[in-house]
Design a protein that fits this description.
623 residues; alpha+beta; Hepatocyte Growth Factor; 14 helices; 24 strands; globular
């Protein structure tokens, strides 16, 4: 009974919050029946009707409201798409903007048994709050309702815009709360390829029962998707965004999540509207924008650099400022200067500033300057956060490069933290941050992979080549799992989704995907020249292609020269014969390590680990 009462009170709070917005609803004069659906067409305001008749629409925005909140959501849409320079700045004369409304219906989250008069406008029925939905092993959203809303409401509006002559690549679907959830569902299942999707305070429905990676490849797999949730949102908490991101990153190449200050009803503000504007300008540039917009967007950073919000006040930390024709010229200048870790560039003034610091010291952007950072010195990957517990001694280092050198000189160091302001260098044994809160000018640089593995940018799409993906608490647990599986040459780990994928291939086949770290076995000199071909050692820098173990003539070793490799390729330039034969086992079979140790390792189930298998062939029954 307590659970029912709690559920009822939560639902009432949701309903009250979404039906008591701070701003008044639109006047009835702005409502029209533009289609056979009950909809709000904001592009036909009375004062613009005559002008708009003379202008052909070239762009389209479809807005999906939240549960029972069409008026409140419509006010938000009007706020961000109006002709005023203070708004988002879409050209209202060239952009058709519609907001179809869901039917009034009972929903399980608001039980009619207790509140018979509450029929809300809802796109689909759902029975638990979003925070529970994304971890539920059973479906909590109604699949039939979702399909009906997709095909008879959303796709109907897309079809009408296309019939009016609006190119599909100029149509953007936006939604808030429950409407945002339907937006994400549409991105995964619609038959129309459109310009983009923007979901606010939303979650992916049926996340566990219908994982996105198990669905047919969506037609919008390369379409930009912007997912924006509020940090202080109690209705759609942060885990909704994190878990949606972990699932969508496996399917969509241009999905991004941004957790912004705000609650369920206050995440779209004067601070976040420029984010939406710039996302549209960069990702859907063919849309028509108003010339009255005051917002300017930083240019995208060239390959090898990451765009970070903020600035370093002044005219750069290296040399003097210069003028460069393009942002690429500025990045080339940074790449040509020793110890340059970031640069700042303005498309309007053409000024180029070079910095030693990798992170901005001020959180606020300056005009249209783009702060482009390499992130961390070579061999390290930049992550957001810090580690509260210190595993190494602090020291004072002049630059971040000195701090990275100190970490490279310590075999137990997997990451370091560097404060640009205090010049403080802290070494850590852990590879991942334990806390997501950190100050300005703080860099968390990780080698990205535990000892024995090296970080390589990229991904192998799917759930891994060995077995199925599992959830592991830490990257170390994932590396231990790889070490315990024969022929595992690499693994991929997501720090937000906790997914661990094991692979036989040592190299990634595709580009970087989300927060996945691709960890490949590092060169182990002790394996070179032992008669066994090792894929991870089969490189020119590792004892000249594993000491020749992958090319003929082959040694007579127990189990065959190809026992520990998957590809088993002869890659030495002077050898043309590829490895396709096998050898017989040698006459001797013995343990190289002490038998007592081998028996202990075998009891602990470590015979699957390559190093132990080689040392304990007899005890592990590998002869």
């Amino acid at each position: 009974m307590d659970n029912i009462v709690w559920k009822l009170l939560t639902a009432l709070a949701l309903c009250y919050a979404e039906n008591h917005p701070p701003d008044p609803p639109l006047s009835s004069g702005s409502l029209t029946n533009a289609t056979d659906l009950l909809s709000i067409d904001l592009s036909k305001e009375a004062k613009l009707r005559e002008l708009e008749k003379q202008d052909k629409k070239t762009s389209g925005v479809i807005w999906l409201h939240g549960m029972n909140t069409p008026d409140w959501d419509t006010n938000i849409l009007n706020l961000i798409t109006g002709p005023s320079a203070a708004r988002l700045g879409l050209n209202i004369l060239k952009t058709k903007m519609v907001a179809p409304m869901a039917e009034k219906r009972p929903t399980s989250i608001l039980p009619p048994t207790f509140i018979p008069f509450l029929n809300t406008r809802s796109w689909f029925d759902f029975s638990v709050m979003p925070g529970l939905s994304v971890i539920s092993p059973v479906a909590t959203e109604n699949k039939e309702d979702l399909e009906r809303a997709l095909h008879t409401r959303v796709e109907k509006e897309i079809e009408l815009m296309i019939e009016e002559g609006i190119p599909s690549e100029n149509i953007v679907l936006m939604g808030m709360s429950q409407g945002g959830a339907l937006t994400l569902y549409t991105a995964l299942h619609t038959k129309y390829k459109i310009g983009g999707f923007m979901a606010n305070v939303a979650w992916q429905v049926l996340l566990k029962t219908e994982p996105p990676v198990d669905q047919p490849i969506p037609i919008n797999k390369d379409t930009p998707i912007f997912h924006m949730n509020g940090i202080a949102d109690l209705i759609v908490p942060l885990n909704c965004g994190w878990r949606t991101k972990a699932a969508f990153k496996k399917v969509f190449t241009q999905y991004s999540l941004d957790n912004v200050p705000g609650t369920h009803l206050t995440s779209i503000t004067a601070i976040t509207i420029p984010k939406i504007y710039c996302w549209l300008k960069i990702n859907v540039p063919q849309m028509d924008f108003s010339d009255l917009s005051l917002y300017s967007c930083p240019a995208a950073c060239p390959t090898g650099f990451e765009l970070i919000e903020g600035q370093n006040p002044g005219v750069g930390q290296i040399g003097t400022a210069s003028t460069e024709n393009t942002i690429f010229d500025c990045s080339d200048k940074c790449n040509g200067v020793q110890n340059c870790c970031s640069f700042e560039y303005s498309e309007t003034t053409k000024w180029c500033y070079l910095n030693m610091d990798c992170e901005p010291t001020d959180d606020d952007d300056y005009l249209d300057y783009a702060f482009c950072s390499k992130g961390c010195p070579t061999g390290f990957k930049l992550l957001k956060g810090d580690i509260l517990e210190i595993f190494g001694d602090d020291s004072t280092e002049s630059t971040i490069f000195d701090c990275s050198d100190r970490c490279n000189g310590d075999q137990n160091c997997c990451s370091f933290e560097y404060s640009q302001k205090k010049k403080k260098c802290t070494l850590n044994q852990l590879c991942q941050p334990t806390n997501q809160i950190f100050g300005s000018g703080h860099s968390f640089c990780t080698k990205g992979c535990p000892t024995g593995f090296k970080l390589i940018p990229g991904r192998i799409p799917g759930w891994g080549q060995i077995g199925t993906a599992t959830e592991e608490d830490t990257i170390h647990d994932c590396s231990d799992k790889c070490n315990g599986v024969q022929n595992c040459c690499s693994f991929e780990y997501s720090e937000t989704g906790y997914w661990c994928d094991l692979n036989m291939d040592c190299q990634p086949t595709h580009g970087v995907d989300g927060d996945y770290s691709f960890c490949s076995r590092d060169c182990d000199p002790s394996w070179a020249g032992d008669g066994y071909c090792d894929d991870s050692n089969n490189t020119p820098d590792c004892n000249n292609f594993d000491g020749g173990d992958c090319c003929p003539p082959y040694e007579a070793v127990e189990g065959g020269w190809d026992k520990y490799c998957n590809k088993c390729e002869c890659l030495e330039p002077t050898t043309t014969t590829t490895t396709t034969t096998t050898t017989t086992t040698g006459p001797n079979c013995k343990d190289k390590a002490k038998t007592k140790k081998c028996k202990k390792w075998k009891k602990k189930g470590k015979c699957g680990k390559k190093k132990i298998a080689k040392k304990c062939k007899k005890t592990c029954n590998l002869c």
